[in-house]
Amino acid sequence: MEVCYQLPVLPLDRPVPKHVLSRRGAISFSSSSSLFGAPDPRQLSQRRGAISYDSSDQTALYIRMLGDVRVRSQVGFEPERRSSHPYLCIDFRTLHTRLSCGSSSASSGTERRVHRLLSFQRYLHSSRLLRGIPQQIPLHILDEDYTGQARCMLEKVGTWNFDIFLFDKLTNGNSLITLTFHLLNQYGLVELFQLDMVKLWRFLVMVQEDYHNDNPYHNSVHAADVTQAMYCYLQEPKLAKSLTSFDILLGILAAATHDLDHPGVNQPFLIKTDHYLATLYRNTSVLENHHWKSAVGLFRETGLFSHLPAEDSLNMERELGSLILATDISRQNDYLSRFRRHLDQDNLCLSNASHRHFILQMALKCADICNPCRPWELSKQWSEKVTEEFFQQGDIEKKHNLDVSPFCDRERNTVGNIQIGFMTYVAEPLFAEWARFSDTRLSQTMLGHMGLNKASWGGLLQEQTPVSEEPEPGADTGDAATGGTSSKEIPQGSRES
Question: Out of 218, 275, 291, 342, which one is annotated catalytic?
Answer without folding.
Answer: 218
